[in-house]
Amino acid sequence: MSNPGTEHDSEIAPKLAAAPADVATIDAIIAAAYDVIAGPAGKERDWNRESSLFNPGARLIPTTAKPGVASETNVTPAVLDVEGYIARVEPYFKENGFFEEEIARRTEQFGHIAHVWSNYESRRHLNDPAPFMRGINSIQLLYDDTRWWILTIYWQHESPDSPIPKEDL
Hints:
Blueprint: H1 20-23, H2 26-37, H3 47-52, E1 54-65, E2 75-77, H4 82-95, E3 99-110, E4 113-123, E5 133-143, E6 148-157
Parallel strand pairs: 1-6
Antiparallel strand pairs: 1-2, 3-4, 4-5, 5-6
């Protein structure tokens, strides 16, 4: 007898083994998620490490501008799986340095699930005096009694129409 919702497990990519230190705590998995995408232009990112942080079927969802709409308030989600995210950012990372750091966090946890609001700043070089971008990541996590998994990262960049609230800095 199968469990409801597991009929298509064979279609789901296998889970990759993660470094235990990367997934032992909420702090660790959030730090690993920021660390794995950081580096100077042309630096090869460790995409296996990136993938190992995410549960199969996980989604990365940048909030993007609707094509042809000038207002920054007209946004739409771009829903990506891990492979789609990698394909989207890899060309950018070949040409540009990217260093993102968490500047504030709010975490809510109940049982095996957690929701993390993680505010970030992005720089092209580690020593840039000011970020070129800031925003907020909404991160949903699952603890399966052995480790934490990222289920979703949904984010929006700060804009003049949507500044990060002062109380969140």
